[in-house]
Amino acid sequence: MIYRARTLVTMDGPPINDGALAIDGPRIVDAGRFDEVRTRNSGEVVDLGAVALLPGLINAHCHLDFTLLRGAIAPQRSFADWIRQINGMQRDLSENDFLGSIASGFGEARRWGTTTIANIESMPQLLVRIALPPLRTWWFLELIDVQSRGAADELVAEVISFSKEKRDWLGGFGLSPHAPYTVSPILSRVVAEAALGTRCCSRCTSRNRRRRCRCSAMAAVRSSICCEVLAGRWTIAGGVRLRSR
Residue 143 gets which letter from DSSP? Predict the structure, then answer.
């Protein structure tokens, strides 16, 4: 199968006018100008017309179960006020509401050309009710705690167990400690050890607060724990700067 487009964007050079892709099953086997690709490959030609054909987009941080909350929260004075608004709305929603929200999020992602998602999941109980996801999705269980070692071990074991049961899902599963200042040193170490000892992925969001940050010292300690255990292999997935008012 050959797909032809007015413009082909490969991300490995400048855009190609009158470009084409050759597909063999699930794999792209050739890319270039249409006349060249047509010469090297056989099969049906699908002319997409006046479009730009480019690699699928990757959403590296989203919350699919909160899709239905878009526009529902007015701008707040602080990050804490925003979180309180979200938590309040969550309490009024059912699991069916959140499942519908996830489905809507997938539908929107597909319409805009997204093919891979890293989803931060705060309600892992929803996963047992989700059918085979339509896109390649990495499900990261969001962790916020000040917990004992036993509770931390249990959380990590739950995610690893679920990942073994869903091997047919495109993507995978992982752990997402919320941020250095909302995750205990114990849980940080458990997650780091799990990431090294299994195929379980881990990600963390780093937030930099300016001035009057009571948690900065503890955040530095927890970050150092992650780096110590992972020996430089820890990935900071996002950076958000929060300013004090």
Answer: E
